[in-house]
Hints:
Helix 2 (21-32) runs parallel beside helix 5. This protein has five helices and no strands. The protein is globular, with a radius of gyration of 11 Å. The model has no long low-confidence stretch (mean pLDDT 93). It has one domain. Helix content is 65%, strand content 0%. The protein is mostly helical.
Amino acid sequence: MSYGYSNRLIELNKKADGNSLGVQLGRLCIERDVPVSDVAVHLGVTRQTVYNWFCGANAPRAKLLQIKEIISSLAADK
């Protein structure tokens, strides 16, 4: 099943600074088709917060360890 990330979100993510944990998380979630809502529930934040991280509009300031764990888990699934 595809969760259909919008072309706009994908483009914003590609243009964003790849050093940001939120952008890195976004790239992996887009690549692996992981729903934003799943990430939001897992981290206890809103879907809008996750979208903002994915686009590089905001950088995560909390939940950094949890985000790193998700990134590691998704990267290991390659």
